[in-house]
Amino acid sequence: MQIDPTLRPQNPGYPAGGSDNNPQGQRGVIIASPCRNTEHPEPYQVLHTGFDTIVLAIKTILPPEFHAHLEAQKAVAEAEQREVQIDYNGVKLLLGHYGGGGYSYVANGGEFGARWAFKKPNAKDPWGVRVTIGSTFLATLGLGAARAHVDGVLEKLGMRFQADDISLSRVDICTDILAPDFVLDQEVFVMHQRANRRGHFSDAEMSVNGRSSRTTSVTIGKSNRRQVIIYDKRLEVIEKRKAHWWAIWNQTRRLQGFPPLDPKNRNERIWRIEFRAGKSLLKDTWNIRTWADLFARFGDLCAQTGSVVRYTDPAPNDGNRARWPNHPIWDIACAEIAADLSEMREGTDPNPVKAVIREQHISTLTKNIRGSTLTLAALHGVGFSDLSEFFDKTAKLFEDDLHSQSEHMRKLFTNAQERYQFITERHGKAQ
């Protein structure tokens, strides 16, 4: 694929515009300060700013050899009703036993890879690939690495395309702010008068979530166009067990000379402000289709988003909502996102983040094993004083199975290795 040399670079390690000399870069090196804190109230601290999700379609079709490989492996996946590992020319993916959305083959490269969907070859439908790059990849490696990753994988798979054969359908960018005293109020969002809309929002335009009389999330807009979301990211991280975000945030704290955040401290509330650009906004309004379009115009799109939709600090004696000033947290978020969209690499070494994800799985499984074994002992009528002996007997049963059902146990173990390979390997092997 030819790289347009006019594209603005993101960072020397993974330039957003591509590089022929250094396509891989050096891992885990801080290229720029992860956050550029603007002037704001003392308690507020920016912990992370970066792209969060990117979805794109690519105009290329499966080559015969790779198509045959996918077809054969999907037959195995369907027969066994599980994901199977494929390893094609050095690209490792977990292939599902299902398709969806017009795509026959769906594969996953793990937290530090991408999600891939492939159509069966069809001359009448040349847009044969869809790629989704998730938040963990983008938070640790950034936009330039994401583009390099897509280009590199498709090259190994033998799928050729040109710079214009890209169609972006979703781009999210966000900033996470430590704001202990911030209280989210759905009533103070304001739509700019230039949008020819009234200053407040209808129920159809706003989605609100909360608990115990506290609003935890407000979403403005529609997913296929422009969306603005403010939500309690700390709460989401805890509820959805995304422990790696503490590692990402605490690297920023460490670099700025602050102690690490305590997940148990409810006063250390972290709010995410996120701008989402859907397919209609990207293409119809801003003519953003390709990487070059994104680098050229996405900054302006975000600037407009921050002015069209505002989170305000109401003026008590002014009934004209359009004159209400921005809340400090809104000004911080807009300044962070606008600061330098060409330099959005968080700079977090992905391997410690992998370690956090891996340890979380280990902790969960260990608790499950402990609880299940104690339940099994209770069902067998074992007394507390006899638990040690019961544990030994249970371990002996597993050892006996290892010898008497060796092939079955080997298969189960291999399946587990494949499922978790992307968080056990050092970064650089996963796709």
Q: Span between N and C termini?
A: 19 Å
- Count up the domains: 3
Q: Which structural class do you get from the secondary structure elements?
A: alpha+beta
Radius of gyration: 24 Å
Largest β sheet strand count, sense and barrel closure = 11 strands, antiparallel
State the strand order across the main sheet.
2-3-4-5-6-1-7-12-11-10-9
- Count of DSSP-assigned helices: 12
Which word captures the global form? flat
- Segments where pLDDT lies below 50 for 5+ residues? 1-40, 193-203, 342-348, 426-431
State which percent range the strand residues make up: 15-25%
Number of strands: 13
Helix and strand element order: EHEEEEEHHEEEEEHHEHHEHHHHH
Q: Give the helix level as a range of percent.
A: 25-40%
Mean of residue pLDDT?
A: 80
Descriptive account of the structure:
This protein is α+β, with helices and mostly antiparallel strands and 431 residues long. The protein has three domains: 52-162; 172-339, no CATH class; 350-424, no CATH class. The protein contains twelve helices and 13 strands. It has helices at 64-80, 135-140, 143-156, 233-239, 244-255, 279-285, 291-308, 328-339, 350-379, 387-404, 406-419, 421-424, and strands at 45-58, 84-88, 91-95, 105-108, 115-118, 129-133, 166-178, 189-191, 206-211, 214-221, 226-232, 270-278, 309-311. Strands 2-3-4-5-6-1-7-12-11-10-9 form an eleven-stranded antiparallel sheet.
